[in-house]
Design goal:
Elements (H helix, E strand, L loop, with lengths): L1 H23 L4 H24 L1 H5 L4 H11 L1 H4 L8 H4 L3 H4 L2
Length: 99
């Protein structure tokens, strides 16, 4: 699984590199526009992932660094994060403490 996540991160980095190269020296017209549209869609998807996995990212020691990596790598970074332990199962309700 870690090989798959690592390969996905490499492909994502290559995509952002190609998109950045397209910004400085645009490719042929149909490809340039397509890359801009795909880049915008990927940014929207990664923004949605930030909202969906907000609590999981807040539980990390460096949440802003994790958010930046999610914006760059997307789900390939989210899948590598540790799972959160449910807090409700670990806490004792106050009614039972005073009973």
């Amino acid at each position: 699984m870690t090989t798959f996540l690592g390969l996905g991160k490499v492909v994502a980095a290559l995509f952002w590199g190609v998109l950045l190269a397209n910004l400085f020296d645009p490719f042929a017209q149909p490809f340039s526009l397509l890359l801009h549209v795909l880049g915008g869609l990927i940014l929207l998807i990664h923004g949605a992932e930030l909202l969906l996995f907000k609590s999981r990212l807040n539980g990390c020691p460096r949440p802003w660094q994790e958010r930046a990596q999610v914006m760059f790598f997307g789900i390939f970074h989210v899948m590598g994060l540790p799972q959160l332990q449910p807090q409700a199962a670990l806490e004792v309700p106050q009614e039972l403490e005073h009973a």
